[in-house]
Write a structure and sequence with these properties.
By secondary structure, the chain is mostly helical. Among the domains are: 61-127, no CATH class; 297-362, no CATH class; 369-433. It contains 24 helices and no strands. The longest helix has 37 residues, at 364-400. The radius of gyration is 40 Å and the shape is flat.
């Protein structure tokens, strides 16, 4: 019995020892064992690492750098930052993405400047929303990429309008009015607000019917577009304003049928022009029905000065007079042609007196018109003259530079002097005009 108990005790001790042997303490095998130390290996070779580093260094670090890489000059970037200062801090990835879309359309740097000037927040909008569907739709409408780009530059919002809720319904509405694809193209180029502002109701439809224009008439598309984008209250006020001068409803809508842009003139402008035509020129009001240009002509820069100089010529008893049908012709002439036909044709003393009187009546408005028409011709002449002088002295330099080094310096100084003289001539001429 004792031997059996002793054997059981020995067996128990043996099991305890074996269990202690199998459960090793953690301190004997630390995580960072010297025998099995973990090793890390790179799958990128040294050349690849250098390439990645160069790629990171080549990444644009500012919106200015992105715009330069896209093709914008410093002047273009300055104009855009002036118009939209927040563009300096734009998200670089988003900016690059949007510029890639625009370049895919064929939009150039100069056109982007015009777009930002028209819509400063353009690059802050989502222009990639429904982009493929929108592009396909516009290509069917405009029929060429060049015309589409022109339309986008005139109205950048074509890329940001809600495509399904704004663009398609507005185009469908105008098509339902009988406008063809070519008509819509012309209207979208001339009236960029066609999409967001077009609406028709029974009263507007009645106005269109009163013009008695058919769908095939040249002016029909303009009447539809202008009435479509105008507010009803504005149309009523402008029609009432014309009625005050004695026009019947049929005469008013007949005038709109011949010259739809009359509806775009302000009430104040129509009142001032009509008052001068009836009160000072002593012409009957119906004269504008056949000659709508009376309403478009600038009152201060054209109508008043030319009517007053006609009276001055009559007072001076000159042979050449501006009367009757000649007055209608004179009012339609450009500034340069008018002065040549009725002022500069006289002897110098008479011409100077007439010119002084003419400018005094038109003041700054005439000076600006004269400068706009005369200065480009002066500049073009001076450009040709300077170019010829430059070619001449370039030939001289090529012949004598090798022997006489001072000739090169002298030629440069002469060209600089000529350029300075040209600038003075242009500035002095501008001052004299103003």
């Amino acid at each position: 019995m004792q031997s059996r108990v002793g054997s059981l005790v020995k067996l128990r001790n043996l099991l305890i020892a074996s269990r202690n042997f199998l459960s090793f303490p953690k301190s004997l095998f630390p995580a960072t064992s010297l025998l099995f130390a973990p090793a890390t290996y790179s799958t990128i070779c040294q050349a690849q690492e250098e390439g990645v580093g160069e790629y990171v260094r080549d990444q644009p670090k500012s919106s200015e750098e992105i715009l330069k890489n896209w093709g914008c000059s410093d002047t273009d970037i300055s104009k855009m930052f002036t118009r939209r200062p927040a563009l300096r801090n734009a998200d670089l990835d988003q900016l690059q993405f949007k510029l890639n879309i625009l370049s895919g359309l064929g939009i150039s740097a100069s056109e982007l400047v015009k777009i930002i000037n028209c819509r400063p927040r353009f690059l802050s909008y989502r222009i990639n929303h429904c982009f493929d569907e929108r592009l396909e739709y516009f290509m069917r409408l405009f029929e060429s990429r060049e015309v589409l780009v022109r339309a986008i530059v005139k109205n950048p919002s074509l890329l940001t309008y809600d495509f399904h809720d704004k663009v398609k319904p507005a185009i469908a509405l105008n098509e339902g009015m009988g406008l063809s694809t070519s008509d819509l193209t012309q209207i979208l180029l001339s009236r960029p607000t066609l999409i967001p502002r077009t609406s028709f109701n029974d009263e507007k439809m009645e106005y269109i019917r009163k013009t008695r224009l058919s769908n095939h008439s040249t002016m029909y598309k303009y009447v539809v577009a202008i009435i479509g984008i105008s507010r009803l209250e504005t149309i009523r006020q402008k029609v009432t304003n014309l009625e005050k001068f004695g026009f019947s409803e049929d005469e008013i809508f007949g005038l709109l049928a011949r010259s739809p842009l009359v509806l775009t003139l302000s009430i104040d402008k129509v009142q001032r022009n009509m008052t001068f035509i009836i009160g000072k020129m002593k012409l009957p009001a119906p004269v504008i029905l056949e000659n709508p240009f009376f309403l478009y002509t600038n009152l201060e820069a054209v109508l008043k000065p030319r009517v007053f100089i006609a009276e001055k010529m009559q007072e001076m008893g000159l042979d050449l007079q501006i009367k009757g049908p000649m007055m209608l012709t004179a009012l339609r002439m450009t500034e340069k042609r008018f002065l040549k036909a009725f002022v500069n044709c006289h002897p110098k003393d008479v011409a100077d007196e007439l010119m002084e009187f003419y400018v005094s009546k038109g003041c700054e408005a005439i000076g600006r018109r004269l400068l706009q028409e005369e200065l480009p011709s002066r500049i073009s002449f001076l450009n040709i003259f300077c170019y010829q002088v430059f070619i001449f002295w370039t030939c001289m330099m090529s012949q004598f530079t090798c022997r006489y080094h001072y000739v090169t310096l002298g030629s440069i100084l002469l060209i600089a002097a000529l350029s300075f003289s040209v600038i003075l001539y242009i500035v002095w001429g501008s001052i004299n005009f103003l």
